[in-house]
Structure formats: C-alpha cells, structure tokens
Fold this sequence. Notes:
By secondary structure, the chain is mainly beta. It has a domain at 20-108: Jelly Rolls. The protein has one helix at residues 6-9, and strands spanning 15-17, 21-27, 36-42, 47-51, 56-63, 66-70, 76-79, 84-86, 92-97, 101-108. The strands form two sheets. A six-stranded antiparallel sheet has the order 1-2-3-10-5-8, with no helix packed on it. Strands 4-9-6-7 form a four-stranded antiparallel sheet, with no helix packed on it. A hairpin with an 8-residue loop joins strand 2 (21-27) and strand 3. The longest helix is centred in the first third of the chain and has 4 residues, at 6-9. It is an enzyme of class 4 (lyase).
Amino acid sequence: MIVRSLKDITGTERDVEAPTWRSKRLVLAREKVGFSLHETVLYAGTETTMWYANHIEAVFCVEGEGELTNEETGEKHRIEPGTMYLLNGHERHTLRAHTDVRTVCVFNPPCTGREVHDENGVYPLIKEEA
C-alpha cells in the first residue's frame, strides 16, 4: 500500500513546473500499477497546447474555469469543476485557463515523472528501467 499526500511531494522531483502549469505526480511508472496520477494546475491567463501522441490522458477538473479546444476539429468546450475530458484519440488540444484550473490527470502508459512537453506539445515516451 502506498499513501502519499500533495504536501509530501511538494518541492521534490515529483513536483514539476513549466511556464504555464505545475504538476505534482502522485503515482508514477516506478510504482508499476499501469497508470500515473497527477494533480496539475494550469495558471490563470495562460494557454497551453498539448498533444499526447504517446499517451492516453483522462482529465477531471476540480477547481477553476477554462476553455478546451480540439485543435483537429476546432470544437470548444467549457471546463469547470466536475468536467472530465478524455483524450482517447491522441487529440492535439489547447487549454486556455481563465482562472487557475486545478485538475486530476491519469496517464496510460504511466509517466515516469521526467516528462515535459516538447516543441509540439508532446510528452516523450520514456520507459522506466526494470
């Protein structure tokens, strides 16, 4: 059994920050459970374009407001507490955070914790050593 809190990982290697977001990675590939679990905050007034070409991601908004755009179709969705979106087709997407948007995210395959978005918004597929 693993019990871990956000305060336990704040300021550690599991606490990853980029210009438009901060992600606290609660469960990673090294736990060997088949997914990773992150709390991610996208900062108010920012826009982040992402494309998980190597991962499936489910996102659940627990706080804040924003707008999600499917860059492949142009379709827009309001993001607010209680909204979930699933990138089951590896969709290129942009999240515009009107306020700080706090989310809980699940990735498959699991992230190692070292991933950051490349110039295309993609997380590389990093395999955890056995």
